[in-house]
Design brief:
45% of the residues lie in helices and 20% in strands. By secondary structure, the protein is of the alpha/beta class. It has three domains: 202 residues, 3-Layer(aba) Sandwich (Rossmann fold), CATH 3.40.50.300; 210 residues, P-loop containing nucleotide triphosphate hydrolases (Rossmann fold); 67 residues. Pfam families: ABC_tran (PF00005), ABC_tran_CTD (PF16326), ABC_tran_Xtn (PF12848). GO terms for molecular function: ATP binding; ATP hydrolysis activity; DNA binding. It comes from Roseiconus nitratireducens.
């Protein structure tokens, strides 16, 4: 297994913030790694360093001679007037049949492939960029928040692409569902250190919490032992007959050290507006038409939303989800029909057109105090600011110097401190890290009001949504099923499209140079497969046995009162953990075979 990139003793600062502090990591071929960490931890900075766009202050980055990096560009690489096909041929140097074949994997055909690429939506342009990546034959993909603003269908296509991509990938994302579907290992950047875990993100988050809880228990045991030794030393050091014992205990005390419990930032806790639950219909649309003066997006909309529902608005990009939300909150006039909100409705809106129009003269804290309801204390404002990553001196920053992402988080914080009993949220998870998105989901689930929202984060949608409204092909309708059944229907459509594409491709003539015989190595492959299957079965037995041993030692450690025995059990647990990690790493390698 070749090491494509090795990071050694990396140091990097940004102002007073330490991003990398002697960090080490290796990226190997054929392994897809999900890269996580709190906002501002330095993930995007490390990506730029690996690409050679920034330099380390100390340390080194070693590239394998055969390394070919494919980076998903955020900027617009297209020329005026060129089609997606023109761009793919220009960017890759590949013939049209090859470009068309790869473009088909992302459902790029017809006008999407041959029309002006600059006229496509952001999601479709991302598909074009992904096709270009594949055509350039990289052996390491680097994707920085690739799912931001991608609709569900494009996310699933991207997942299918990554699963079929048999090379390495480093993917920065706050979308747990996407990382779980695409990455077999997890890399965390925290407090300047890089930690590689040989498992998926859910297993890593569970392992991290178990490790912290274990360290807390061991520390409690060590502290109890330290106190016991200290009492003995103080009682006996002045007595000539016991002084030597006291000196011996002092040496033991010097050897006993607590370990630092690795916690990132303080645990994020977000509260939603405190409102009284209500019943009945909160909003009704009758024969509604939405869109713009010269363009009807959807019409004949008849829709009702009940108090207490958390309605997820779903549909592909460009179908009209944001247009619907903007019409519901009154920032766009209906083309026809009417919208009626229930008596006593207090709307709170989170959308780009809102957070780009904040009062530049206010500070962060002044904005939150202005937006909060009457019974909100200054401490409540500070706590909410901290949860949305405004801490210490940042609370006194003027809004005019905030970035777009910071303005978005500030708008969310102000909204949650208010007294709205209906929240209308357009992509609330953008600009938030994994922990903060999870905390926001918890808050919305506990919220006693009504939520109408869009999101591309499937984990968030599944947790929050109680009902689904689909915007598609000029209509807006209640989807009769939960979010999982909607996901399944989209997956089925994509699978059917891929089967149809494969069927057509199978009947089409291919250049002889592309034909694969496959039969020459069949017997060797079968023998190798049997060896791999046998080793996997043996590893699974070993992992199960080690898991049982780990649980048994953990159970003993929880109830052990003797400090010496607790230390011994801790050492035994460390040994089992290392052996288990090696076995799991080997199992993952073979599973990728």
């Amino acid at each position: 297994m070749a090491v494509l990139i090795q990071v050694r003793n990396a140091h990097k600062r940004f102002g007073d913030q330490v991003l990398l502090d002697g960090a080490d990591v290796s990226l190997v071929d054929d392994v897809k790694v999900g890269f996580i960490g709190r906002n501002g931890a330095g993930k995007s900075t490390l990506i730029r360093i690996l690409l050679g766009d920034e330099e380390l202050e100390q340390g080194e980055i070693i590239h394998h001679p055969s390394l070919r990096i494919g980076y998903l560009r955020q900027h617009d690489p297209f020329q005026e007037g060129e089609s997606a096909m023109d761009f793919l041929m220009r960017d890759s140097g590949q013939p049209d049949w090859k470009c068309g074949q790869v473009a088909g994997q992302f459902e790029l055909k017809g006008d999407y492939l041959n029309g002006p690429v600059k006229s496509l939506s952001g999601g479709w342009q991302t598909r074009v960029k992904l096709a270009a990546l594949l055509l350039n034959d990289p052996n390491l993909l680097m994707l920085d928040e690739p799912t931001n603003f991608l609709d569900l269908r494009t996310q699933i296509l991207l997942e299918h692409f990554l699963r079929n991509f048999n090379k390495a990938a480093l993917i920065v994302s706050h979308d747990r569902e996407f990382l779980k579907a695409t990455c077999s290992q997890t890399l965390e950047l925290s407090r300047g250190q890089l930690t590689m875990y040989p498992g998926k993100i859910d297993a890593f988050l569970e392992f991290r919490e178990e490790r912290r809880e274990h360290d807390r228990r061991v520390n409690a045991t060590v502290i109890a032992k330290q106190k016991q030794l200290q009492r003995f030393i103080e009682k006996n050091r002045a007595n000539a007959s016991t002084a030597s014992q006291a000196r011996s205990k002092a040496k033991q005390l010097a050897r006993l050290q607590t370990s630092e419990v690795e916690v990132d930032e303080p645990t994020v806790h977000i509260r939603a507006p405190r409102v009284n639950p209500r019943q009945g219909t909160v909003m009704r649309c009758d024969n509604l038409a939405i869109g713009y003066p010269n363009h009807v997006v959807a019409d004949q909309i008849g829709l009702e939303i009940e108090h207490g529902q958390r309605a997820a608005i779903v549909g592909d990009n460009g179908q009209g989800k944001t247009t619907l939300l903007r019409t519901l909150v009154g920032s766009l006039e209906p083309l026809d029909g009417n919208i009626k909100w229930g008596h006593g409705t207090e709307l709170g809106t989170y959308a780009q057109h809102v957070y780009t129009s904040l009062d530049d003269r206010q500070t962060v804290l002044e904005h939150l105090e202005y937006q909060s309801n009457a019974d909100t204390t200054r401490q409540d404002c500070l706590a909410m600011a901290g949860a949305l990553l405004f801490r210490d001196s940042h609370i006194n920053k003027k809004i005019k110097v905030l970035s777009g992402g910071e303005r978005a988080r500030l708008c969310m914080a102000g909204l949650l401190l208010g007294d709205a009993n209906v929240l209308v949220l357009d992509e609330p998870g953008n600009h938030l890290d994994v922990e903060t998105v999870e905390a926001l989901a918890d808050a919305l689930v506990d919220y006693q009001g009504t939520v109408i929202f869009t999101s591309h984060d499937r984990h968030f949608m599944r947790r929050v949504a109680t009902n689904v409204i689909e915007v598609r092909d000029g209509s807006v309708k209640n989807y009769f099923g939960d979010y999982d059944s909607y996901l399944q229907s989209v997956e089925s459509e994509i699978d059917e499209g891929e089967r149809e594409r494969d069927r057509i491709a199978g009947n089409a003539p291919k250049p002889t140079s592309e034909k694969a015989s496959g039969s020459e190595n069949y017997r060797a492959n079968q023998q190798q497969s049997r060896k791999v299957e046998k080793e996997i079965k043996n590893l699974e037995k070993k992992i199960a046995k080690l898991d049982d041993e780990k649980k048994a030692v953990n159970d003993k450690l929880l109830t052990e009162t003797d400090p010496d025995e607790a230390v011994r059990l801790h050492e035994e647990l460390t040994r089992i953990g290392e052996e288990l990690e090696t076995a799991e790493h080997r199992w993952l390698e073979l599973s990728e075979f």
